[in-house]
Amino acid sequence: MTEKQRANNQFGPNTRLAHDGFNPRDYHGFVNPPVVHASTVLFPDAMTMDKRAQKYTYGTRGTPTTDALCEAIDALEGSAGTILVPSGLAAVSVPFLGLVSAGDHILVVDSVYFPTRHFCDTMLKKLGIETEYYDPAIGAGIAALMRPNTKLVHLEAPGSNTFEMQDVRAIADAAHAGGAAVTMDNTWATPLYFKPLDFGVDISIHAATKYPSGHSDILMGTVSANEKYWPMLTETTVTLGVCGAPDDAYQILRGLRTMGIRMERHQESALKIARWLEGRDDVLQVLHPALESFNGHEIWKRDFKGASGVFSFVLAESDPAKYKTKAFAFLDALRLFGLGYSWGGFESLALMVLLGDRTIAKAPTGGPVIRLQIGLEDVPDLIGDLEAGFKSARSAVSG
């Protein structure tokens, strides 16, 4: 942690979001950093070029714009360094490629984001790396799965789509005792509500596409490492030639300035709707870690400072043959909730979750699982939209 990061720790999250990552006095007082488009960077003389003895050497290795975003993310994460990559999936794949080699074994939580599983089961498998999936509730018991060649343990908390919680500290301690690095996808909570490096994680991963962007118009991932793994991470991204674009970095930095107040609204609205759903007879279960009824609530309450706007619920239906019919009728009746992937933007979204890839953390039974992203709209309007969905769902399977 830098001196500036330590000094800024005295301030609240929204103050830090408004000020971290850029000093206006560096650029004539302008409150936003310049967008520097660059590939070639010139050197003043041959000796400087030979020794690369200047801050910027080539566009893929950073510009004032990308550095401003990285500095802001480091301030949030408490990390030694951050890299920017073109997507959330790249934010997973780049550190994986830097940490493991042919013949290695890795442990990945079974409730992981499906594209991460696909990357492990295809790309890593072709490279001779074995992936084993573990129960998100395993805690310190993960020690029993460690092997001499286990080099990486990957967490995602809450779990993708079904929101299983993990005991991050217990898993990280066991993984380190076995000689493995620990990575975590923390996109759901953002570092405002959970800071993985404070719980023993070595590398924190985010799809900045989601809440840091906040407007459903930018693709970017951030990867933040502690001091031990920062040299590996920066070397990997340079070797792969993967980098974030300056225009996208500028937009993400702009989104960070309002992320705190947006997250407060997402959290408040999502909890109101989740509690409303809990009281409905046509909802079998609500999968939201901040609800007292949720199985992993105590871990969430102990470790997390807040919740985001994404959760799921089980639409009650006793006949599995009618799952899609009922779910599609529900979704097609929605007007304010768009049908789309991703989340974290200003607009509400809905989709039917597919969980056929799971081997341990099986899909809830009793009906189709519907995932909601609660945006910034007014809660009564969103509830009215959901009411129309439930009405359509009932009609689709009646008789």
UniProtKB/TrEMBL annotation:
Pfam family, any one: Cys_Met_Meta_PP
Co-factor(s): pyridoxal 5'-phosphate
N6-(pyridoxal phosphate)lysine PTM positions: K210
Catalytic activity: L,L-cystathionine + H2O = L-homocysteine + pyruvate + NH4(+)
Keyword Oxidoreductase recorded: no
SUPFAM superfamilies in UniProt: PLP-dependent transferases
Record GO biological process: L-cysteine catabolic process to pyruvate; transsulfuration
EC number: 4.4.1.8
InterPro entries: Cys/Met-Metab_PyrdxlP-dep_enz, Cys_b_lyase_bac, PyrdxlP-dep_Trfase, PyrdxlP-dep_Trfase_major, PyrdxlP-dep_Trfase_small
Keywords in alphabetical order: Lyase, Pyridoxal phosphate
Gene Ontology MF term list: cysteine-S-conjugate beta-lyase activity; pyridoxal phosphate binding
Family, per entry: Belongs to the trans-sulfuration enzymes family.
The protein's name: Cystathionine beta-lyase
Organism listed in the record: Rhizobium setariae
